[in-house]
Amino acid sequence: MSATEAAKNFGSILTEVRERGAEYVVEHRGKAVARISPEEDPTLTVKEFFEYIENRSVPPVGEEYLRAVEEGIAIWNREEVPGGSWER
């Protein structure tokens, strides 16, 4: 697609990329100059993380470190409850 068309339809292009995984090549004067495509999700599940660690030669860690990691995961996964309007 032309750069002008991409600029005019940028919002809908982003929606297509996000929702359908569409990919676009943007051209300027008939030459490809940019690609708009989905970003790879760098997020790992806990299971994927442990599989990753198991397949790497990393030094063993202590119990204290493992506890800290588990606490961090629990904090990260904690459901956030919005505060009242009177809280500061």
Task: Describe the protein's architecture and organization.
With 88 residues, the protein is an alpha+beta fold. 47% of the residues lie in helices and 12% in strands. It has four helices and two strands, in the order ααββαα. β1 and β2 form a beta hairpin.
**Poorly predicted spans:** none
Major sheet: size, sense and barrel closure? 2 strands, antiparallel
Helix content: 40-55%
Termini Cα gap: 50 Å
Spatial order of the strands forming the largest sheet: 1-2
Radius of gyration: 22 Å
In terms of structural class, how would the helical and strand content be classed? alpha+beta
Mean pLDDT across residues: 86
3D shape: flat
Instruction: Provide the succession of SSEs.
Output: HHEEHH
Number of DSSP strands?
2
| Proportion of strand residues | 5-15%
Number of helices, where a helix is a run of at least 4 consecutive DSSP H or I residues = 4
Which characteristics define this entry?
88 residues, alpha+beta, two-stranded antiparallel sheet, 2 strands, 12% strand
Helix/strand layout:
Layout: H1 3-8, H2 10-20, E1 24-28, E2 31-36, H3 46-54, H4 63-77
Antiparallel strand pairs: 1-2
Short description:
The chain is α+β, with helices and mostly antiparallel strands. It is built from four helices and two strands, in the order H-H-E-E-H-H.
